[in-house]
Design the sequence.
């Protein structure tokens, strides 16, 4: 078995365990109120963290590049209540344009 | 998403993985950043253990995703297990952004299945073509599509003060940890950090706006 296949199998089993732990352990039982309150805040933290890391992260480096322009443009588009697809397109276009002129 | 699938297929081909192995990663592991990490380490001649551990570390956040999504992923144990396989950033983000339980499940499944299909098809395309497509993605600014999508999903929550504070603190924790932690860990730390802060001052106010409770209480 090649190295890649071993890594593949280990990651398949491990990742599945990580993914299914929550749904299998908790099921659809109601969680205690405090836990629910805390969990209610998780998506905001998750989405904010994903936004910032995918904009400014590059491995272990913090970088400021054209992606940040795209994010700002996306913010303006959202503030103007433009549809989701338009937000994505103008953000990508702004990033591409910034790279073109810089 | 699609461009990254092509890039993963290309990276896998460049690292010497067979087409079957590349598809195996995309279909069985199904976690973009972890696949990239493992293949990159293998490509650099890293050990089996380091590749697998780095890959798995990037998926530890699935534990937290699972806790978020658990109430929405109801059903028999095998159904819950099957739905769990679709648990990635995108499906959790789309699902968690909905306010009702059934819409959370629906959003999660639609996003998860959609990304799964595109991700696997584009992995094949990338492996077969494996040309240097990295330039094309940046030329078209498509690397800003992910951030813009995450911001769009976050946006409606920012009108509630507790949610806004949570988002700001989460973003700052993640940003601060980028240089010090392996990829994936800053995101996990941001989530753990805000929950810890929440429990620290639990009695302050029961104010977390309709968004918090609505989708979670069965």
Sequence:
């Amino acid at each position: 078995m090649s190295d890649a296949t071993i890594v593949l199998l280990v990651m398949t089993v491990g990742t599945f365990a990580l993914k299914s732990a929550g749904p299998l352990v908790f099921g659809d039982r109601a969680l205690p109120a405090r836990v629910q309150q805390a969990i209610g805040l998780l998506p905001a933290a998750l989405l904010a963290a994903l936004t910032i890391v995918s904009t400014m992260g590059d491995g272990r480096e913090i970088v400021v590049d054209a992606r940040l322009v795209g994010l700002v443009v996306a913010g303006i588009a959202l503030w103007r209540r433009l549809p989701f697809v338009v937000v994505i397109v103008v953000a990508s276009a702004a990033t591409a344009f910034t790279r073109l002129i810089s | 998403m699609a461009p990254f699938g092509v890039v993963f297929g290309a990276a896998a081909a460049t690292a010497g993985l067979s087409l079957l192995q590349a598809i195996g990663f995309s279909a069985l592991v199904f976690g973009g950043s972890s696949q990239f990490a493992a293949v990159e380490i293998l490509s650099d001649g890293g050990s089996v253990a380091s590749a697998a551990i780095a890959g798995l570390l990037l998926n530890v956040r699935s534990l937290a995703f699972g806790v978020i999504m658990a109430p929405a992923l109801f059903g028999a144990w095998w159904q819950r297990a099957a739905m769990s396989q679709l648990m990635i950033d995108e499906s959790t983000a789309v699902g968690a952004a909905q306010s009702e339980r059934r819409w959370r499940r629906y959003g999660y499944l639609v996003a998860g299945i959609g990304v799964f299909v595109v991700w696997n098809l584009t992995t094949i395309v990338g492996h077969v073509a494996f040309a240097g497509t990295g330039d094309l993605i940046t030329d078209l600014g498509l690397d800003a599509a992910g951030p813009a999508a995450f911001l769009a999903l976050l946006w409606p929550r920012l009108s509630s003060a507790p949610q806004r504070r949570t988002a700001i603190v989460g973003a700052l924790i993640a940003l601060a940890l980028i240089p010090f932690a392996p990829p994936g860990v800053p995101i996990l730390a941001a989530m753990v950090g805000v929950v810890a802060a929440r429990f620290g001052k639990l009695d302050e106010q029961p104010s977390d706006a309709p968004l918090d409770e609505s989708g979670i209480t069965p």
